[in-house]
Write a structure and sequence with these properties.
255 residues; alpha+beta; 9-stranded mixed β-sheet
Length: 255
């Protein structure tokens, strides 16, 4: 082997070594920070296409708030280890569904899930995906409760609120600590919508239904006019009971 071939071989070995190091770094970042960042945000950072900057943008998105009912009471009467086990099992199933429908979970507020559809990556079907996701989440609850009963835990229920509207999204914080988040009037409204929902129910605004399309199934008799705190006028909330051919199971229905 002449000197030129030897240098070429050494260069190829160094390239392979550096590639292995980069692959190892990416796996470490995925494993470590994947628990704290949404998949799309993480991929955006790793791709190097855009820098993580403080700031944001206005965009029409669909916002979901999902919250367990009577969780505070359960946390007080259950063994702490059992309560966290029950909560983590519930969240594991919900996270999988949200990810499957291209939602991005921004945070957990206690046992509540806050998710956005249509950010950071644009999704023209964000409202449709959010509605389908919410139905899938409620359809999973019977299996969640089957597991709870097997463990000797109480059955639980969840209320979901959906709204489509403009929000400010971006990296909020400082150069030392940053969080991808959303703020604005419509975020607050989505939270209020969730607050009106009962356990096992999905409530959605008219804006959500108009953006989601005809596959969303509503119970017309369940519609209600409400005046949320901070909103000047009454708004109509719709009782979503299914998506496509999938319905939310009611008590006694097949799971």
């Amino acid at each position: 082997m002449n000197e030129c071939e030897e240098k070429l071989r050494e260069a190829e070995e160094e390239i392979r070594r550096l590639k292995d190091l980069l692959d190892s770094r990416d796996r470490f970042i995925h494993d470590t920070f994947g628990r704290y960042l949404t998949g799309e945000v993480l991929e955006e950072i790793l791709s190097g296409k855009t820098q993580v900057q403080i700031g944001g943008e206005r965009r029409v998105v669909t916002i979901m708030f999902a919250d367990l009912r009577q969780s505070t009471m359960l946390s007080e009467i259950m063994d702490p280890v059992d309560f966290i086990s029950m909560l983590n099992h519930f969240l594991a199933g919900m996270i999988e569904i949200v990810n499957a429908w291209q939602g991005n979970i921004l945070e957990f507020v206690g046992d509540a899930i806050v998710a956005v559809f249509g950010a950071p990556m644009v999704n023209d079907y964000a409202a449709r995906d959010a509605a389908a996701c919410a139905v899938a989440m409620q359809r999973l609850m019977p299996r969640v409760n089957e597991w709870n009963v097997q463990q000797g835990f109480p059955e639980i229920s969840m209320g979901i609120g959906l709204h489509t509207g403009e929000a400010i999204l971006g990296n909020i914080g400082s150069q030392t600590r940053t969080k991808y988040d959303m703020i604005g009037r419509n975020v607050n409204l989505a939270s209020r919508v969730q607050g009106y929902s009962k356990g096992g129910q999905i409530l959605a605004t008219t804006e959500l239904l108009e953006a989601a399309g005809k596959q969303v199934i509503v119970n017309e008799q369940g519609a209600m006019w409400v005046k949320p705190k901070g909103i000047q006028t009454e708004i109509l909330l719709h009782d979503v009971i299914g998506f496509g051919s999938q319905y939310i199971p009611q008590t006694g229905e097949e799971k």
